[in-house]
Amino acid sequence: MKKLLAEIEKLAKKTSLTKTVKENLLAAKTYFSNHQQMMDYPTQLEKNLPIGSGVTEAACKTLVKQRLCGSGMRWKNKGARVVLFLRALVQSKGRWQQFWENIE
């Protein structure tokens, strides 16, 4: 990451760039500086953590889309929230039992 930030800084100092390009480079530098810890992909992979949005998108598809978007289905917000809450509990390993232990 340090190499990337140094390269952006070096590019931004070039006089041949337009003001807009320089501003965009500095904005990118700020973004990368502020989010370094979230972009440490090797460490995230070592911890078996997802580094992309695929897991989240797949969860949305199986939790929400399949249940709420069937042919002819109409949901009010309250009913959809209850159904999705229960569906998430059932599909999350151990959470259904944990939920009922807290109810009793």
Quick recap:
The chain is mostly helical. It is built from six helices and no strands. Helix 1 packs antiparallel against helix 2.
Point out poorly predicted stretches.
Answer: none
Rg (CA only): 23 Å
Q: Which band does the percent of strand residues land in? A: under 5%
Structural class: mainly alpha
* Ends apart, CA distance between termini: 50 Å
So what's the overall shape?
Answer: elongated
Q: What's the number of helices?
A: 6
| Helix/strand order, N-terminal first | HHHHHH
Q: How confident overall, as mean pLDDT? A: 87
Helix amount, in percent? 55-70%
Features:
104 residues; mainly alpha; 2 domains; 69% helix
Mind explaining what this structure looks like?
With 104 residues, the chain is mainly alpha-helical. It is built from 6 helices and no strands. Helix 4 crosses helix 5. The N and C termini lie far apart (50 Å). 0% of the residues are buried.
List the helices and strands and how they pair.
Layout: H1 2-12, H2 19-34, H3 41-46, H4 54-68, H5 77-91, H6 95-103
Helix pairs in contact: 1-2, 4-5
